[in-house]
Amino acid sequence: MAPRLFWVGIIAFILGVFVRTLVPFGWATIGFFTCAAIISGVFSVRHKERARILFVVFLLMLSLGAARMHIGIIESEPALDAHVEEKVILEGIVQDEPDVRENNVRIPLRVTAIASTTIEGDIAVLVVAPLHTEVEYGDSLRVEGELALPEAFETGEGRVFDYPGFLAKDRILYQMSFAQVARLESGGGFFLKTWAIWLKQKYLEGLANALKEPQAGLAGGITVGDKRGLGTQLSDTFRIVGLTHIVVLSGYNIMVVVDALLRWLVRFPQAVRLSVAGFVAFFFAAITGFASASTRAAAMAMIAITGKATGRTYLASRALALVAAGMILWNPYVLVFDPGFQLSVLATAGLIFVSPLFESRLAFIPERFGLREIAGATLGTQVAVLPLLLYQNGMLTLYSLPANLLALVVIPWAMLLSAIAAIIGLFMGIVAPIFGLPAYALLSYVIYVAKGFAALPFSTLSIPAFSMLWLVLAYAALSIVVYMKSGRGESSAA
Questions:
Q1: How many Å apart are CA 201 and CA 228, to the nearest integer?
Q2: What are residue 460's DSSP bridge partners?
Q3: Which residues contact 85 (CB under 8 A, 6 or more apart)?
Q4: Which of 11, 26, 292, 394 is the most exposed place for a label (fewest CB within 10 A)?
Q5: Does the N-terminal peptide bond of residue 214 adopt cis geometry, omega within 30 degrees of 0?
Q6: Can you give the three-state secondary structure of the chain, one letter per residue?
Q7: Using one digit for the tens of pLDDT, what is the confidence trace for 390-444?
Q8: CATH 3.90.25.10 assigned to 78-188
């Protein structure tokens, strides 16, 4: 009974957040479902009916999820609304690390004043400034430019990306392009995050001293999730062949490294191995400045690796559900508007549930260098995320499996050697390229694999847009297949 209550509660909570995100309703509707749950609960206690108890839990958690989203709705700021499509002067604090692109710098600015009028709250503006604008996390800025509302845009094949919703997950409701930026003060951020971002920047400086581009950019991507050095063309190449997860420090990427580490520590007790793995995952999150994507990736990687190391899939599945629900509780916008969150959860679920089904059927692939394991993990994650990827961008990558097999086998060593090259690059700048040669060779190999498969005919196929109903049916069918193939006994234990 307890496992059923757990899963019914988690699913109902997530469903409540999902429905309230898409359908606007207020406290009256939420109160109605809560009252219905209470009334049903009274009868359930009297008659001790399990089905009704589950129904009560479902209604209560559904109401709780809807209430969380209702409370979390971000309201616009009237003082800013009055100046939309006008040139304004804003003051604010940089709330996260600026995103340096090829042609500009994107600054998430929490607004504190407009035209010298103080603004309370934590509404942010995405300020797009010229390249080489020097700002850091925690800086107080004065920016001048035209204030605008972000708009959804078409991504091709009839798909529309909800850009306003995507920004809203970070409490960004406005944007300002071609802004003039002046720094007022520095050092206003949270000290731990400031230190972590400084450490990341020093690390990237070491990479730049030891490696040339685009190898340095790839090294920054696979180790700390910084892909600014890759450039648009090479980033598109990795996306075409299904290797994007390598350059964004995904949970899959961290899991590959942690899994390799566990194999190296095979002679140690399991508690020691998992403790070391946990520290490494935490380190990955810390060195990226505790960015939300890398922190989430580290958590998902540890869930997958713990389930695999202990052989207790049902515990890993519950941990995944709790972590996902906790992230949604913290920020309900991520459920619908954050593709990274959605793909991370699905990829982790694929590693837990789907990958073992493939590994048992890949006896023809040698175990040497972890090839069979990489193949199973790649197939599991690809199957798990494919319906959502097709729904979001319609791009079907045909050579993902061989590309991942050839690239991932060297990623743990490439990450280790890149880290060594970065450290040497900080202290021995002029001779650092000599010590960076091993990392350079492996990174060049990964780039060669990506470019080679991208050059093949029919490397990608475009799928026309389709209804969300087909997405739901696809995951329902996948869940049924996994349930049947994994055995009813294990599933029941979950």
A1: 12
A2: 397
A3: 146, 147, 148
A4: 26
A5: yes
A6: CHHHHHHHHHHHHHHHHHHHHHCCCCHHHHHHHHHHHHHHHHHHHHHCCHHHHHHHHHHHHHHHHHHHHHHHCCCCCHHHHCCCCCEEEEEEEECCCCEECCCEEEEEEEEEEECCEECCCCCEEEEEEECCCCCCCCCEEEEEEEEECCCCEEEECCEEECHHHHHHCCCEEEEEEEEEEEEEECCCCCHHHHHHHHHHHHHHHHHHHHCCCCHHHHHHHHHHCCCCCCHHHHHHHHHHCCCHHHHHCCHHHHHHHHHHHHHHCCCCCHHHHHHHHHHHHHHHHHHCCCCHHHHHHHHHHHHHHHHHHHCCHHHHHHHHHHHHHHHHHHCCCHHHHCHHHHHHHHHHHHHHHHHHHHHCCCCCCCCHHHHHHHHHHHHHHHHHHHHHHHHHCCEEECCHHHHHHHHHCCHHHHHHHHHHHHHHHHHCHHHHHHHCHHHHHHHHHHHHHHHHHHCCCCCEEECCCCCHHHHHHHHHHHHHHHHHHHCHHHHHHC
A7: 888 888 888 888 888 888 888 888 888 998 999 999 888 788 889 999 999 999 9
A8: no
The Cα 335–Cα 340 span in angstroms is 10
Rounded Cα distance, 76 and 69, in Å? 16
- Sequence-distant (≥ 6) Cβ neighbours of residue 109 within 8 angstroms: 90, 92, 93, 94, 95, 124, 125, 126, 127, 141, 143
| pLDDT tens column, 146-197 | 999 999 888 776 788 899 999 999 899 999 999 999 999 888 778 888 888 8
How long, in residues, is the chain? Answer: 494
By the 8 A CB rule, do 144 and 87 touch? Answer: yes
User: Model's pTM, two decimal places?
Assistant: 0.83
136 touches 187 (CB < 8 A): no
Beta strand pairing status for 117-118 and 140-148? unpaired
pLDDT in tens, 297-311: 777 777 766 666 666
Half-sphere exposure of 137 (CA within 13 A, CB side): 21
Q: Is 476 exposed, middle or buried (0-12, 13-18, 19+ CB in 10 A)?
A: exposed
For the record, the structure tokens of 116 come out as 């010298």
